[in-house]
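Exercise 3.2. Students should predict the tertiary structure of the chain below and write it as structure tokens, then compare their answer with the key that follows.

Predict this chain's 3D structure.
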Amino acid sequence: MKGGGWEGEEKKEWGRGDAGQSPPVVNLTPGNTGATGNTRGTGGTGGTVEAGREGSAGARAAGQQADDMRLHFLKNTQVTCNDGTAAGFYLKEFRGSRRWLLFLEGGWCCYSKETCDSRYQNIPRLMSSSGWPQTKRGTGILSSQVEENPHWYNANIVFIPYCSSDVWSGTGLYTFMGSLIIREVIKDLIPKGIKQAKVVMLSGTSAGGTGVLLNIERVASQLEQLGAEAQVRGLVDSGWFLESKQQRSPNCPETVSCSPEDAIKIGLKLWNGVVPDRCRQLYKKGEEWQCFFGHKLYSTLSSPLFVVQWLFDEEQLRVENIYMGGQSMSEEQWQYIQNLGRELKNSLRDVTAVFAPSCLSHTMITKSNWMSFQVKGTSLPRALQCWDRNLEATRNNRTPAKGCPFQLVDTCQWPQCNPTCPALVDQATQQELTLLQMLVAMGLDLQKLGLDPQGDTDALASMVSNGG
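Answer key:
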């Protein structure tokens, strides 16, 4: 698949010499998750878990096996991955805990025979369970280590691999069954105690984050029908996209590049995709694709939602064929990047629980250094804890605690003006660069753009100290 589009996530997966034989999982070590600058390759598809059987010798020490999530295939064998192999989930139980974290993996989608064939050839694990390992180890919010995951380490953690290629919306006969997979996973968790849950958090990154938006109401009503009293909450990471600005050839998918909107319009028919009822009622037939965009869907949802979104999301930029650290950039593209931050900020205005740093990156909650990112001095795990407490207080008719923020959007305007941003890396040299150094490396004339390299360093420093 060439050209722009959120399929950029896939390119990262197999663009590193392993096309055609994508490993069943990515072994992600803390050394390559953003603190050292590598914000690529840890994106929405593979960078969320370590293979339980491939960790370092130290990590495999006796007693640590219990930290692994174990693979369970669905009991309902009619609900499958794209290629008809069994769908399933990984589960790490925490005995006695009444908190459940369900995680939807990301990885964009396919929407035609050509795009699906390409996906099956290049990233088979996103369409088939045949290569899945027996165990996985979670990172970030999926970790069972208290140091890495202070507020959710003691939940029952469920990782649902993405093998339906339909942004988790499909109920289709051509084995696009994302939404049905979620339904069946919950059924299979009943004997494990999910009916007794107090809190069920449906979370996901990238296409999985969009999947949370599309499925949270259905999950809440399914649990309610089972007689569960759990509060169902959503955690959407890097799944809050804006529509593309580019004019494209109208005859997608015959062209090499479809806009996200066109891909979803076509895909919805192929997948027999479903969107939440209240959103669907807002749009006439054929316009349901609009419900894939968080800023259009959010106000129609009744479940509490927390949105995690980099203001300069790399996948959003790829849609416009902008690659930070790539070969070149035009002045128009730089202008687009600056405008993107403003537009994303505006689109998040009415979101009550949000964590939006002014950085260039993609996905956050499964990075093992996720605790290091801050907005206005508050880290994401802390903001989630504040949100948690606020929801508990509201449920129990108590006054929420003051001074515990969870509506956190950076005020500084520039990409990378937040000092805790993941470092930028030049793709050719793998060197860490400042934003201005990267713009120069990509061929932009700073003075022509009205940027004074020295002055702007000082200006950025003062923006940062003023609560960026």
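Discussion points: The mean pLDDT is 82. The chain has one domain: 67-449.
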